[in-house]
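Q: For a teaching session next week I want to show students how multiple molecules come together into a single three-dimensional assembly. I've collected the sequence lines for a complex. Could you give me the predicted structure tokens for the whole thing so I can convert them for display?
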Amino acid sequence: MKTLLLVVACALVDVDNRVLISQRPEGKALAGLWEFPGGKVDPGESPEDALVRELAEELGITVEKPCLAPLTFASFDYETFHLLMPLYVCRRWQGFVSGREGQAVKWVKARDLRSYPMPPADEPLIPHLVDLL
Ligand SMILES: Nc1nc2c([nH]c(=O)n2[C@@H]2O[C@H](COP(=O)(O)OP(=O)(O)OP(=O)(O)O)[C@@H](O)[C@H]2O)c(=O)[nH]1
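A: Of course. Below is the structure for the complete assembly, covering every listed component.
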């Protein structure tokens, strides 16, 4: 039985209904692919606390937990672990988004997400965003 890895991710949505994607930096697994900001839930941490922390670390923004709305989740069998990844939607935050870890970020229309190579776990999430936005 593979380890079940809990990763939280967020679709930040701006006033023009575009979604933020972030490019995984060189040196990390799946480098160069575009993904939703987020990361692993630490032991003892709630999913929402983990997402608030990751959004601050990666993008330099402050998000209040009630502004995180669950949308759907990804469940994907990677070679070495099984990924379970809740996807939240957030339209309200404080501060300006910038790639704090040197990563490129991009605002894209949901229907254009398919033009950006994403991890295989993310592909089934795209139609949910297209429907919502
Ligand atoms: N953040 C994020 N991770 C994703 C997405 N899709 C996906 O398969 N993953 C996978 O989920 C895992 C998240 O790990 P991460 O490396 O971003 O998390 P982290 O920043 O907490 O880890 P680290 O500090 O060890 O690098 C990776 O294996 C990554 O490939 C996504 O859309 N967003």
